[in-house]
Amino acid sequence: MTLKDVKAHIPEWGRDIQLNLDSVLSETGSPGLTASQIWGVALACSYSVGSEKLIQALLHEGKPDDATVAASKSAATMMAMTNVYFRSLHLMGDPGLATLPARLSMDVMTEPGIVCIDFVLMSFGISAIGGCGMCMTSKLAECRKASVSDEALQSTLRIAAVINAANRALRIASL
Q: Are 32 and 147 in contact (CB under 8 A)?
C-alpha cells in the first residue's frame, strides 16, 4: 500500500486530509525536522492510532530502518501506558496520588535504540493524540533542553494531527 492508495480510500469530503498528508510528510511541509524524524513520528503515530493502511504506506514510502520501526513501536506502546497513567493523575488533581512513584518500567525512554530526541519527538506526537498534558509538558521540556526549534515542535504536532485525522477518515469511509 502506498500513500496514494491511502488517499484514494479517503473520499472527497476528506480532501483536506489528503492534501495535508502530502504536506506534512515532506521536509518542506514539516520544517525543523529531518526526513527520518518526519517518517518516524508519522509511523509512531500510525502505530498509536492502529491504522494498518497508514502503517503499510509509511513503511513502503518512508523506508525507515529497522531501529526506527522498532522505536516507533516502542513509543506507541510506551505512550499508551504513560498517557493513561499520567493523564489520569492530571485529571484527578489529587496531590496524594501525584506524589506516589509510578512504579512502571520505562527503560526504553532512556535507551530507545535511536537518537533519543527522535524518540522524544515520536512520544510528543503520540501524547498529543492521547491528550496527555503531563506527558506533552514533559516531552516539551526534553525538546527545549535539546534545543529543538519551535518549528520542529509544531511540525511534530501537525504530523500527529494529520495522522489522527487520516485514520479517522479511513474508518469513517469504511462504515
A: no
